[in-house]
Amino acid sequence: MSSSLEMISANRSFGGWHKKYQHRSSSLNCEMTFSIYLPPQVDDGGKVPVLYWLSGLTCTDDNFSHKAGAQRYAAALGVALVMADTSPRGDGVADDADGAYDMGLGAGFYLNATEAPWNSHYKMYDYIVDELPALVESVFPVTTKKAISGHSMGGHGALTIALKNSGVYTSASAFSPIVNPVNSPWGKKAFAAYLGDDVAAWSAYDTVELMNQGAGKALPILVDQGLDDSFLAEQLLTDNLVQAAQANGVDAKVRYQPGYDHSYYFIASFIEQHLIFHAKHLVGSA
Amino acid sequence: MSSSLEMISANRSFGGWHKKYQHRSSSLNCEMTFSIYLPPQVDDGGKVPVLYWLSGLTCTDDNFSHKAGAQRYAAALGVALVMADTSPRGDGVADDADGAYDMGLGAGFYLNATEAPWNSHYKMYDYIVDELPALVESVFPVTTKKAISGHSMGGHGALTIALKNSGVYTSASAFSPIVNPVNSPWGKKAFAAYLGDDVAAWSAYDTVELMNQGAGKALPILVDQGLDDSFLAEQLLTDNLVQAAQANGVDAKVRYQPGYDHSYYFIASFIEQHLIFHAKHLVGSA
């Protein structure tokens, strides 16, 4: 598997290394890029746990790599960061006919599509849950301990993936997540295309629905949501998460942050606290 | 002057505000953008000193705003950040005939051009030294205390501007600065176009030459330079700065950082130390 891994760039960062790779993905059936930050703790032959980061609509692995400032805290805490892309890529991969930003390329929604033409490449769930960690753990000096976080569509991905894989992730967190996509315009549009008209199938990829089905009883969750986020009322529906967690006894701390919006300025302002939250669980359960 | 100032965006960041503005520049004779970070210390009616940031070739005010992570330290230390653009902009502004990245748009070199066609807009020296601080100090809750820093071409700008304006800046710092442009390919190309063939005129915009002329005796300077910077040997010529500072009794601390390159990963890794350096002088001389 590692034989197809090609390094695109390597930058020294906070005493560690930020590296970007290209590889052939078997689950997505295309070439993919991802980035990894390896903290200085690996220099003496040590292994570190991993925080996976899932980005939002239109993003690649670069947005978080460039804008979040997370490397500083990963270096201090001894945690590796893995930044994934947001959809399959390449000439043969289907895209929205109108080039919409919220469907197709850059908008994989971290699910396994069942409908044509999407089902030949759009298997981001399998990629994030199985293929990418297997690759990372086979090549880099990391342990199998992992946590997951993300932003917006990637916050949806992080929460649903952690909820659906009990015991695999020590903790999950999100910034501005789409917590109830079956009731949001972004989610309805994407799920109808990727998963078809059977709405019952959608709930397998919905944070609120999964909690109502009993998932997440042993999963520590941290969510930050800006109160000046223009997507809050229509697309993100954060109050539905607060209610579902409370009704089902899920340990989810949801913090509304006055004045903050949907941007990476918001993520950068609070990513330190997310890294500390995950490090506590990653190390505590090591 | 403030009547022409138009806010393009405002993002909450580390308890303060990161704002981007457009305004008509009289010195550059075109519309310009800049960004300012106001830390939370201004919320109670207080005023804070300012660190001006000058970016490198091809950049705008956005690169540092998005990638350096400096807002965290500015918020902690109570310092405003002002990020400038790197050249005049707009349809009427001359650009390199071949669209080269190191001449014309995005490559103003923080000087006042004397040669046509550049001399009708390329007055970045006047803009950074006079017009922008006057505007900032008339509109925002800042004191007249200021320091200056920058990267690559912007490191050249920060050092030369501070050296040429004794007593105006409490301190100067730079990442990967072009310290001796009269002897570097980038500098020779730009200075010949902007300033003409009289090489004697070039030394007014050269850090090493200015130090050899006696400037900087009372200016604290901090420089970080990555040893894996691909521009180091041919373009940056950092050793010439070390020698000039030593020969002329200038208080310049030049640190070579093993493994680091020319990127914003390098800047992000050390910007905290630059902010602390400037805050010490900005506050100590208040």
UniProtKB/TrEMBL annotation, chains A, B:
Q: What is the similarity comment for this entry?
A: Belongs to the esterase D family.
Q: Does the keyword Transmembrane apply?
A: no
Keyword Hydrolase in annotation: yes
**UniProt xrefs under InterPro entries:** AB_hydrolase_fold, Esterase-like, S-formylglutathione_hydrol
Q: What class of enzyme is it?
A: hydrolase
Q: Which GO terms describe its molecular function?
A: S-formylglutathione hydrolase activity
Residue stretches spanning the membrane: none
Q: What is this protein called?
A: S-formylglutathione hydrolase
Q: Which reaction does it catalyse?
A: S-formylglutathione + H2O = formate + glutathione + H(+)
This entry's Enzyme Commission designation comes to 3.1.2.12
Taxonomic source organism: Sinobacterium norvegicum
List keywords of the entry alphabetically: Hydrolase, Serine esterase
Task: State its role.
Answer: Serine hydrolase involved in the detoxification of formaldehyde.
Which positions carry the signal peptide feature in this UniProt record?
Answer: none
